[in-house]
Records
---
Amino acid sequence: MKCPYCGDDNDRVIDTRLVKDGEAIRRRRECLSCGRRFTTYEYIEKTPLLVIKKDGTREPFERDKILQGILTACHKRPIPREKIESLVDEVVSVVSDLGKTEVESRIIGEEIMKRLKELDEISYVRFASVYREFRDKKEFLKELKNLKG
Ligand SMILES: [Zn+2]
């Protein structure tokens, strides 16, 4: 590593430790040319995940957007906030584990619906009606009927 003081590329690591809950490694280095010390950090390179929307545009994948969508669907439903939070966490980890750099919004929507259906049917139908954009009212009612049966 090039020394920030003298510019020489000649140093030794004098201390290495995990920081930020293990998400980074901090190294104290000593320049062997001028004797001064400096710090470097090492992080895993993360490519930001993008969501492909229906119109083909992309936007960054954000946990908060998923949470907002679910909170809207669960409005005034007797569902503890922690259950919603853990549902969101599950969806985020499933989507991250796909290991892709771009994911269709449809896939995220399906993952949410799968879990929401188990959690609360009313919220599920509300969410599904927005995400699936039921082609007509008949289709929507059919879905409702399926739930009750
Ligand atoms: Zn130096």
---
Amino acid sequence: MKTNLFRPAVGALALAVSMGHPAFAKPYSPEALRQLIVQTEELAEQGKQPIVMFDLDDTLTNTRGRNLRILKDFASQSEIQSAFPEASQKVSEIQIDQIQYLLTDTMKNVGVTDADFIKRASDFWLAHFFTNEYCAKDEPNPGAAKYLHLLVRAGAKIVYLTGRDVPRMGEGTQRNLIRNRFPMNPNHALLLMKPDPKLDDLKFKESQYSVVATMGEVIGVFENEPANINSMANAFPQAHAVFLDTIHSPKPDVPQDRVEWVPDFKIP
Ligand SMILES: [Mg+2]
């Protein structure tokens, strides 16, 4: 249905304001997904190696579920329940669509204002978000695994380029990709993670572009962070640069004009 392809302007504005983000939106271009498969087939026929690069968090997988699991585990601790009965009750009832990028916004969203409770929840979040245990259970964004297998079948190699780091999340990330049935055969897929948690996400990603470029022809890049997709759009001017309109950091960047937007990986 055509109306589903467009993010409603009024809703987008309201969402952007409520999440503290700049108000920006663009009609979705899910046809870019199919165009990449066709392009992959054409290049493969010419004996070339097409490469398509994907971010993980809030691009291929969904961190809202991880945030929800962490908050519920925090609020189910008996010590927290007895110290903050009302706030922990509210948190135990949070639904996934109430989860915002920032924990403080999620709390505001469900009417929790107790600063001590929010501080303890933030500490608990920080100790658990970047862990094998929690990331291993992430759910895929709709259509993601199927789409990647279609690309592989057409002849593409998949590069997973993530800001997650090996020491804290390497093992859980591998388990999660297998659990969600993403391509993991080393002939078809490569996982690139930060060797050190202290590295900046975007700087690490930029340091990997030349590595990825030696593997073949980069024809598609996918990201949910505006600053990252802009960097990739500049580094790979011939590639489709696709922005996942999920959730992203409150940094002020806006995807540049040539970036195509999709809400998920469902091919129209
Ligand atoms: Mg991301």
